[in-house]
Write a sequence for this structure.
């Protein structure tokens, strides 16, 4: 985390399950929980012995006594044994990414985001897990006007991915209303960035273009705006969501760094000290022009607010990416 940006400490679960732990956000969450004293069972279908991204993401967790990794697909593995004595399940496993969700891949989105979530929920009920924190998405809002999106606003998902995330979130909230259902907090994450961000995402690609001199493909005119939310802030909100005494449904996790893609490119340009080559491409269907979180509920319920501003977050992200690029040479 950039210096001077510490979050207040919150109570952590004694034992927790993190699904999607070999992924970008899941690996950061598992690490933060273990550092705070939680015993973590991490589950992911990507096998770190054969998948380089999973291995890199799990690198910092390897050998930590509080972390136990299970390579398994939630669509068919035995989930119950993983949940025994868990105080909380953080369900982050899923297929992310807005643009590839059109066409043939939709069945994978449906399977991992909805059907696997259903299996997790049934297992939570059988084992009696008290709290489920699930990764929802800002994409459930769909097109918005210039105002900030509040949790009770109308939801108009504009891509197949967003439809599955809304289904996932609502399925979890429906289970929460069942007798012996877990208390559910659905966190609507807004465009998360920082070290180990997925390589398909804009921030990663912009910083990679800045570091390597390779061109950046820009979809649309670059005036699209996002609430870019730094990974450490997202982790702080996620851990806080397991600790609140009553579950409160959906909560936005975003705010504080609303910027256009062109503004991100400008910050990256000034960090690297030279221009980024841009290849203009057409705007992608389902890509909204604006996301902007109303952060009031997160502040009230989780006591959370984002701490890392975009220039500081991008600097930390760029440093991590530079260390990761095999032949990065500052003078190149
Ligand atoms: P990621 O792809 O890096 O991580 C997701 C992980 O889930 C992967 O490692 C994948 O192997 C695993 N997974 C998928 N299906 C599985 C299955 N059936 N069984 C077991 N493991 C499975 O993605 P991420 O960016 O870390 O996103 C994590 C979660 O947060 C996702 O649910 C995503 O929809 C949500 N989200 C992400 C963002 C963002 O900006 N990154 C924003 C909003 C919501
Ligand atoms: C991101 C994540 O990828 C989703 O998993 C997540 O659910 C979503 O945030 C969310 O907030 O819920 P997105 O905002 O589309 O989705 O983030 P990026 O994939 O980084 O794209 C941001 C913008 O950059 C889009 O307008 C996209 O078209 C553009 N882009 C992306 C480019 O111009 N070039 C690229 O190479 C990649």
């Amino acid at each position: 985390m950039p210096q001077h940006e510490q979050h207040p400490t919150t109570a952590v679960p004694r034992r927790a399950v993190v699904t999607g732990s070999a992924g970008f956000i899941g690996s950061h969450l598992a690490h933060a929980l273990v550092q705070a004293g939680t015993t973590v069972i991490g589950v992911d279908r990507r096998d770190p012995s054969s998948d380089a991204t999973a291995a890199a993401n799990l690198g910092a967790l390897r050998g930590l006594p509080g972390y136990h990794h299970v390579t398994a697909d939630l669509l068919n593995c035995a989930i119950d044994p993983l949940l025994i004595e868990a105080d909380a399940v953080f369900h982050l496993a899923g297929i992310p990414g807005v643009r590839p969700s059109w066409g043939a891949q939709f069945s994978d989105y449906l399977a991992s985001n909805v059907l696997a979530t259903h299996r997790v929920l049934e297992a939570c009920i059988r084992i009696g897990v008290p709290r489920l924190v699930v990764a929802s998405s800002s994409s459930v809002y769909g097109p918005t006007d210039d105002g900030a999106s509040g949790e009770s606003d109308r939801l108009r998902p504009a891509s197949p991915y967003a439809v599955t995330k809304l289904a996932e979130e609502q399925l979890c909230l429906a289970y929460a209303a069942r007798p012996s259902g877990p208390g559910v907090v659905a966190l609507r994450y807004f465009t998360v960035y920082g070290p180990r961000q997925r390589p398909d995402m804009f921030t990663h690609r912009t910083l990679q273009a800045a570091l390597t001199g390779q061109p950046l493909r820009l979809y649309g005119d670059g005036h699209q705006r996002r609430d870019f939310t730094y990974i450490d802030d997202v982790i702080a909100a996620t851990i806080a969501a397991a600790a609140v005494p009553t579950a409160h449904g959906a909560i936005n996790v975003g705010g504080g760094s609303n910027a256009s893609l062109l503004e991100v490119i400008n910050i990256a340009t000034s960090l690297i000290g030279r221009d980024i080559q841009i290849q203009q491409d057409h705007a992608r269907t389902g890509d909204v022009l604006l996301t902007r979180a109303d952060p009031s509920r997160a502040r009230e319920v989780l006591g959370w607010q984002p701490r890392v501003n975009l220039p500081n977050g991008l600097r930390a992200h760029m440093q991590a990416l530079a260390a990761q690029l095999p032949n990065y040479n500052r003078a190149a």
